[in-house]
Amino acid sequence: MAPSIDSSQPQRQPAPASTKPSFDYKEVAIASMNDYSQENELNGVGDFKKASYPNYLPKWDKSVHFPPLEPFTHHDPGLDADPILPNLFPKGEQAYAEDITANIGAEVHGIQLSSFLPSPPARSDTATAAAKNELALYVARKRIVAFRDQDFADLPISSAVDFAKHFGRLHMHPTSPSPNGHPEVHLVHKGAGDTTASAFLSGRTNSTAWHTDISYEEQPPGCTFLYVLDAPAAGGDTLFSSMVEAYNRLSPAFRGLLRGLKAVHSGFEQAAVVS
To answer: Three-state SS for 71?
Structure first.
């Protein structure tokens, strides 16, 4: 189970009653939701251990409705950052970063992001805001950044929400579960005892489903803050790619075919499977 916090908010629209999901991998997620058991989560079942973080367990409440979104102006905090990143990587400390690939991704060691929360004992609010501005710039440069040995999972959920608010208006996913009282936290969850995914993969070699999250929003999220709570010892890998680099590696003729094309992104199908 892993939470994510997106900076932005979703556009909610009613789903046509006749809409039917067309991809099997989406049905897996819905089956997991329907098979959810709070008792199994809290106590464990079979080879599935009990949830390490019960405060993060998902809640589906179809009686909750959010008002229509209003357009907003977003100011990227990375625009206010010192390009040298002196607050994110202070001199004299053991923090360092290593590139994961030549085009996308970095792994950072020696930084505890929770130290950038408002009013920590060792840093001023001005310094923590500057560090988060530089974090926004660094993530924009690297596209995806992994920070090892973080403690957000052990802090109150509100701490993660407060941290993410610095980067923009928070997104509330229109169809996915969230922890009780925290609709800004989107949970990627597989229930204890749920073997739907195993059955799905029994006749397939993979479950590859490349996608961009919430692409149907008028103002899609600009970044996602993701951390793991409970994960299997093996499997469950998530891959990330740079579509900019993928496009740049196409031949000039192929890029010419794509240039100017338009696509319609819709959330109707996603909404239909949970309605």
So the answer is: coil
Amino acid letter, 247: Y
Question: Measured between alpha carbons, how far is 170 from 133 in angstroms, rounded to an integer?
Answer: 16
- Give first-to-last CA distance, the chain, whole Å: 22
Place of tokens 């199994």: 40
Q: Which residues face 7 on adjacent strands? A: 170
Give rounded-to-5 percent helix, strand, coil for the chain.
30, 10, 60
**Do residues 88 and 133 touch, judged by C-beta distance below 8 A?**
no
What is the block-wise mean pLDDT of the chain (275 residues), using blocks of 10 residues?
A: 50 41 51 74 88 92 82 95 95 90 94 83 75 96 94 94 94 88 90 79 77 87 90 81 93 95 86 71
- Asked whether 216 and 55 are in contact (CB, 8 A), the reply is no
Q: pTM score, two decimals?
A: 0.82
Q: What is the largest CA-CA distance in the chain?
A: 62
In whole angstroms, give the CA distance from residue 157 to residue 179: 9
Q: Which amino acid is at 104?
A: I
Measured CA to CA in angstroms, residue 252 lies from 102, 241, 242, 261 at distances of 22, 21, 18, 15
Grouping H, G, I as helix, E, B as strand and the rest as coil, residue 103 is coil
Whether 187 contacts 1, CB under 8 Å: yes
CA distance 142 to 145: 7
**Nearest partner of 153 among 52, 26, 241, 64, judged by Cα:** 52
